[in-house]
Amino acid sequence: MGNKQTRFLFVTGGVVSSLGKGVAAASLGAVLESRGLSVTILKLDPYINLDPGTMSPFQHGEVFVTEDGSETDLDLGHYERFLTSKMSKSNNFTTGQVYEEVLRKERKGDYLGGTVQVIPHITDEIKERIIKGAGNSDVAIVEIGGTVGDIESQPFLEAIRQMKIDLQSYQTLYMHLTLLPFLKSAGETKTKPTQRSVKEMLSHGLQPDILVCRSDKPMEEEERKKIALFTNVKPNAVISMPDVDSIYKIPIELNYQKVDEIVLEKFKLNSSKKPNLRDWRKVIKEDLEPKESVKISMVGKYTELADAYKSLNEALKHGGFKNNLKVDIDYVDSEKLDSKNVHRKLGKSNAILVPGGFGERGIEGMVTAVKYARTKLIPYLGICLGMQIAVIEYARNVTRLKLANSTEFDKTTNYPVVGLISEWLDSEGSIERRDSNSDLGGTMRLGSQECILKNNSLTRALYKKSKILERHRHRYEVNNNLIDILVSKGLKVVGKSADKMLVEVIEIDEHPWFIGCQFHPEFTSDPRSGHPLFTGFIKAAKKNKISK
Fold it and tell me: Catalytic: 522?
């Protein structure tokens, strides 16, 4: 079954959701990678949606985009920030995708008229996808979404139980995350929820090999022994994972408790290479010991939920790391921003950012924010929708194309400076087409694509190269029929797609730092090296702060 060499480490969670399975999986992957092993991570999502692409950011948080153009769970962002390996379409799948494929096979007659059932048809499909996603990696970490006990995740748990039987005993390992709550009234940490969670695991035929216990404070030795006794897990494999002031401490914390040693022993993998965590120590120092701070105003429409901009938040932090600065993000709801309160809300900002998004809600507030950044000479970064808004604002207020708009927000506008593109090249160079009747899901310009930067531009100076690869996720583009009017009035187009058909990056000459990009640079930022756009943006924010 699959690559005989690959080991599978299954990560589950119990008691409550949002314990940080994704960060724990990614951190362990980083430690194993530093020991010379090739690691990939899969996320299995129990929901019925085919992917998170059409889900509300308020429900699901950010949609992360892979190089090969897949709309995936935000946990894949964690994986890429902690690992050197890149994720792809096969690193994330949902219950919806599994059922869709099984039903397609049934319609084709692949099951020879048999009754299609959860076992074996659904579980077989899950196992196939896990094997495919693992590829030829030494270790595949497989994170099961939701919590043990959820009705939706049962087929996934059954599939990973079967894999223990299908494979050699040393090829599978189960790591379970639970909550250790501290009751102030009793003055003690309670182990019972963890015991119950493991009991739930056992009812599915799964015995955890490693228990990671999330808590407010470090676990006492007595608690560790008690948990080990009641869960049949070795005491050294009961891992304390208290809250930390920087998530980048977790690889070091896992290594300190020798989790990587436990994994290597169970997997019968020899690694004489000592883990090299020097980069992570440097990142922690940058994270926790900044010299001063800058204030960035993020003017968006999903500001109630920080996870809606997860990669963006991290990319801004990384930009701070490279400048020895703490980045304070001020989330400004664009729906509540207008010309009357803009100075009060943005006047103390060292820089302004307008992120991506869809739909017309809150658009005019974003236009107001761009005008304020442009006229007050405050550093501005517009990403995806943020670039389109910058074009709309420039068209209205500099070029005097009154009521200029995007056809996404006003189909009858006389000056559609942004419109639905009907044809473009995908990440592999093939022509894709769409129209207004196309499905919302999976019909966007998606994935990593080439952009050519002009010499003598700020963006070219930041990247230090003229050809860049960045990831896209959008349906609308700057209208080429109207761009010349904008350019004649001082807007600079400094980045275009490889076929020179699509506007990718804009700047304003007379402004100290004003960049709009159609792509999403936040998806390629990582804590160790940062990203040139965000490093430059935070540097400009510092300069602006000093000059005030």
Answer: yes
